[in-house]
């Protein structure tokens, strides 16, 4: 969310490709919050076609210390009140 000065860099991705998809397929992508630390956010992502799970990934994002709010920004005070309603699709 660059408009709030929060900039993430992807630090780690662990992915499992379970089944193929084609270009014309309609896919559902969901992202859920797994963990939140001072300068990191852990997410899980799933891609489905209908009821079939095609892909899962664990993603760790870290705060970019060169973002607008600098290296001393901490996530927990900013995002903890919002975590019950974070949904990225």
Q: Nearest-angstrom radius of gyration?
A: 15 Å
CATH superfamily: Hotdog Thioesterase
Specify the helix fraction band. under 10%
**Average predicted confidence as pLDDT:** 80
**Computed structural class:** mainly beta
End-to-end span in angstroms? Answer: 15 Å
Which fold does the CATH topology refer to? Thiol Ester Dehydrase, Chain A
What is the β-strand count?
Answer: 4
Run of helices and strands: EEEEH
State the CATH architecture: Roll
Helices, by number, come to: 1
* Percentage of residues in DSSP E strands: over 45%
Characterization of the model:
The chain has 89 residues and is mostly beta strands. The protein has one domain: Hotdog Thioesterase (Thiol Ester Dehydrase, Chain A). 6% of the residues lie in helices and 46% in strands. Strands 1-4-3-2 form a four-stranded antiparallel beta sheet. The longest helix has 5 residues, at 75-79.
What's the topology here?
Blueprint: E1 8-17, E2 28-36, E3 40-49, E4 52-63, H1 75-79
Antiparallel strand pairs: 1-4, 2-3, 3-4
Question: How would you briefly describe this protein structure?
Answer:
This protein is mostly beta strands and 89 residues long.
Which keywords apply here?
89 residues; 1 helix; mainly beta; four-stranded antiparallel beta sheet
